[in-house]
């Protein structure tokens, strides 16, 4: 199970937690989806880390068979995925963005209790691919590519980090310009993946030039 106050993810590479309520459909109105997102986010907001690599997600919806077969208001399985992923992404979530989801399995099983529904979620990940929430921000580099960094690091550490990332990105682009493939040239980059600026809603995003000015990089 998920530890609501953990600062690092479990070494097992698996997180499990449950949502003790029915899911909402992608077609639900905005108020219902907003209320559902707030309810789910409360499960993970106190976790001290964000998973930052690719993950696989397993969603098991426990619901009475009669509701699925004889009720036209029961959500379709394929429509409950997006609202749920949205609810666990973002600065207070457990994922940065849902484009980290490399594989997903979603299904329902009979709960045998008509008035009880629950969503069980399992996330598999690489144990060392995470970032602390405390102090987390992103530096927006060229072409709206953003790299995570920690604002609570000392200025001299920020200088080293920013300068290194600039050099690596410039070298990668030069290698690709000279005919090397994306996969060959990415060997010079850090293991930590990038995120496009459009996928970082709610996060603190620093402009590269402004950040360099603040930490005195010419």
Order of helices and strands: EHEEHHEEEEEHHEEH
- Shape estimate: elongated
Overall residue-averaged pLDDT value: 90
Largest sheet: 4 strands, mixed
Helices, by number, come to: 6
Q: Describe the strand arrangement of the main beta sheet, using strand numbers.
A: 1-5-3-4
Strand content: 15-25%
Keywords:
218 residues; alpha+beta; four-stranded mixed beta sheet; 6 helices; elongated
Architecture overview:
- The chain has 218 residues and is α+β, with helices and mostly antiparallel strands.
- The termini are far apart.
- The strands form three sheets. Strands 1-5-3-4 form a four-stranded mixed sheet. Strands 9-8-7-10 form a four-stranded mixed sheet. Strands 2-6 form a two-stranded antiparallel ribbon.
- The chain has six helices and ten strands.
- The model has no long low-confidence stretch (mean pLDDT 90).
- The chain is 28% helix and 25% strand.
């Amino acid at each position: 199970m998920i530890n609501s106050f953990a600062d690092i993810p479990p070494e097992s590479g698996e997180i499990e937690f449950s949502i003790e309520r029915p899911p909402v459909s992608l077609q639900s109105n905005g108020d219902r989806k907003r209320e559902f997102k707030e309810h789910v986010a409360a499960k993970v907001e106190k976790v001290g880390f964000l998973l930052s690599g690719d993950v696989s997600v397993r969603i098991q919806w426990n619901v009475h068979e009669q509701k699925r077969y004889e009720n036209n208001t029961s959500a379709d399985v394929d429509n409950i995925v997006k609202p749920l992923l949205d609810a666990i992404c973002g600065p207070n979530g457990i994922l940065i963005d849902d484009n980290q989801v490399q594989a997903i399995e979603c299904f329902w099983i009979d709960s045998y209790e008509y008035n009880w529904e629950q969503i069980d979620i399992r996330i598999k990940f690489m144990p060392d691919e995470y970032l602390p929430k405390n102090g987390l921000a992103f530096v927006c580099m060229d072409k709206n590519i953003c790299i995570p960094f920690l604002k609570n690091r000392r200025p001299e550490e920020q200088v080293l980090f920013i300068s290194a990332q600039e050099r690596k990105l410039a070298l990668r682009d030069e290698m690709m310009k000279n005919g090397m493939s994306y996969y060959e040239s990415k060997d010079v980059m850090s293991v930590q993946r990038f995120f496009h600026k459009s996928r970082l809603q709610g996060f603190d995003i620093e402009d590269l030039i402004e950040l360099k000015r603040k930490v005195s990089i010419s």
